[in-house]
């Protein structure tokens, strides 16, 4: 039933987007972090002994799929990402949709595919909070960058950390939302790389990794590789944001996932953040609509 177990901390693989992997804490009151994995497994755990707490690592559509199956459970999320659970439009706003059509596609997907529902937040998490489940201690690490309220969960006694969407996948980190930040992603990853743990768990991809900081550094390195490729492209001459987006440095040719997630828009917003960063560093200048090297 479990893809990884370390005492009371257990791990359930979730399959593909818009699902994710789940951490199950089986000590004292039962708890789930990111209940978007396998419905049958989560429900059978709940039948054995109720799930009393649902924690969401951050306010994204692919981490909420089965929350609605546990209406009685307490709902905990970081204070900064909490507002997206009070109104579906707040969540849609965070994705940078560009048109009414885009918004309505997201609204439909959130409600009908991802089972979004308005949910009262019972506890607003903050960095350093110590969550106690029976004998099991979990420390909240606020790791902004992917979303502004993204959190990781450190289990010091089990020597493991759940890194959620700092997910160590080959493609590299995502920072395409309005509130995403490249600088924060880098600081969060540096913090995680300095943690003395044996195991990294992530919400997507392989899910279970040996706790080797080099793995985090390689993942973080993708950010700098993207930036390097962007600079090489600008060496050819001034480019507009549209041209840079079409180049597909991050995601390749345009693709729409599940009929609602337009990767070309993610490409555009992530490239905008790189361009902003290069401008701040004084390496790139914007003249009219064209970005060029200094
Ligand atoms: Zn996410
Ligand atoms: Zn995710």
Please, could you describe this protein's structure?
Helix content is 31%, strand content 23%. It folds into two domains: 4-212, Ribonuclease Z/Hydroxyacylglutathione hydrolase-like (Metallo-beta-lactamase, Chain A); 218-280, no CATH class. Strand 9 and strand 10 form a beta hairpin. A seven-stranded mixed sheet has the order 1-2-3-4-5-6-7. With 294 residues, it is an alpha+beta fold. It contains seven helices and 18 strands. The relative contact order is 0.12. The structure holds zinc ion (2 copies). One zinc ion binds next to loops.
Keywords:
294 residues; alpha+beta; Metallo-beta-lactamase, Chain A; seven-stranded mixed beta sheet; six-stranded mixed beta sheet; 23% strand; binds zinc ion
